[in-house]
Amino acid sequence: SRKHELGPACVKCNSLKFRRAKSTAVCRYSGAIPACSAAIPACSAAIPTNPATRIARTAGVAAAWRVAACLCWRPEVTTRVRHGSVFQLLTDLKEQRKESGKNKHSSGQQNLNTITYETLKYISKTPCRHQSPEIVREFLTAMKSHKLTKAEKLQLLNHRPMTAVEIQLMVEESEERLTEEQIEALLHTVTSILPAGPEAEQKKNTDDVTMDEEDPA
Amino acid sequence: MFVLVEMVDTVRIPPWQFERKLNDSIAEELNKKLANKVMYNVGLCICLFDITKLEDAYVFPGDGASHTKVHFRYVVFHPFLDEILIGKIKGCSPEGVHVSLGFFDDILIPPESLQQPAKFDEAEQVWVWEYETEEGAHDLYMDTGEEIRFRVVDESFVDTSPTGPSSAEAMSSSEELPKKEAPYTLVGSISEPGLGLLSWWTSS
Question: Where is this region: Disordered (chain A) (predicted)?
Fold first, then answer.
């Protein structure tokens, strides 16, 4: 197999897609930052203050550019959240509103009611509704050895993949980064730690039913 | 697919709400203002996550209400590019397959991003994946209501805020075609193994 050198991950979102965007210096995950690539000359002028980047600069244009692009990344304004925590938040909100009852203040909240109802409905169908903070912590500890990016771990949590083909979708360049054994191990960790979703339970029930039906035949 | 976005806003609390806790009234006002709305270049707002900072409240002359600058975090639907999502097929049209997440509907999978070779069945108004096996081609229909897994490949925000009448000409043309544009649309793709209807990839 050909050797593939992985470049540095994006500082902001830890994605490796950064490496692929040769011409634009834009990380595909954290969004287009055209100002960033345009500002590179200014950046490299500012570089000498940082000894690490000075070294990178002498090592070649490409390296300097890579570091420069990372340096002028804007501060984090958004954080990704798990489905599970959104689910928790929405259920709490629902309870709270139920408790406070139909008081006179809760008029004009139809928008909030619609969106929370629909979102709750969507998340209830995913395996995330049973994910407690303890389970997530255990999962993340177990994931340390697999060397995945944050975005990949988030998707594993949100989807709870059960087949190798799903892992290949969620993990970038999985053919190069993971061997078959590693994918198997990953699948095992995911399915053993994370609780199954409502679909799986239903499926189990229907399986039982069909088996019962087949038995007399 | 959800993100927390830090925002700052000045919230006006009318005097008849002064008997309540300030945090409660502010939370309610923020939800009233933002929930179920698309914010340009940010995403679809879901609900308030928390209030991180409250600055001093002011009462201005001529208005009994208090104005408080609030720093808060809001839960926003904004999937990142290349994220895998699961939705339901809302319908098919020659433009592609329309997918809905329940709370968000404006997702389109264009024909070139479907599993190839694909064709549009005019009679049934449905897209078909002509899946080839050794025994011949299987027609896999993408029926309405089926669950579908797709990858987000593009997003676009359209500024739908009202604009003043620019000219009489534009007025007349807009009257003829009151086209309602979606403020936030996602473009999906299912042209990879593992993507498409969930039933295609289950082992059974």
Answer: 194-217
Q: Are residues B103 and B6 in the same domain?
A: no
Contact across the interface for B194 and A168, Cβ inside 8 Å: yes
Q: Is residue B168 part of a domain?
A: no
Tell me if the pTM is above 0.95.
no
Residue pLDDT, tens place only, B117-175: 888 888 888 888 887 777 777 788 888 888 999 999 998 888 777 766 665 555 555 44
For residue B48, being part of any structural domain is answered with: yes
Cα dihedral sign, B149-B155-B161-B167 = negative
Among A150, A29, A81, residue whose Cα is nearest residue B81: A29
- Token pair 């009489």: residue: B168
Instruction: Please tell me whether residues B187 and B107 are part of one structural domain.
Output: yes
Residues linked to residue B196 through DSSP beta bridges, in sequence order: B149
Q: What are phi and psi of B166, to 5 degrees?
A: -80, -45
Tell me, what's the ipTM? 0.81
Question: Of B77, B105, B127, at which residue does a domain stop?
Answer: B77
Q: Do A114 and B36 touch (CB under 8 A)?
A: yes
* CA–CA min distance B176, chain A (Å): 30
Name every residue in A having a CB less than 8 A away from some CB of B.
Answer: 13, 17, 28-31, 77-83, 86, 89-90, 93, 105-106, 108-109, 111-112, 114-116, 118-119, 121-122, 126, 151, 155, 158-159, 163, 165-166, 168-170, 172
Residues B11 and B112 in one domain: no
Considering CB atoms only, which of A77, A106, A115 is closest to B36?
A: A115
Are B189 and B153 in contact, with CB atoms under 8 Å apart?
yes
Phi, psi of B150 (to 5 degrees): -145, 165
Report all structural domains of chain A as residue ranges with CATH numbers, in order of start: 86-94+107-129 (no CATH), 133-193 (1.20.1250.40)
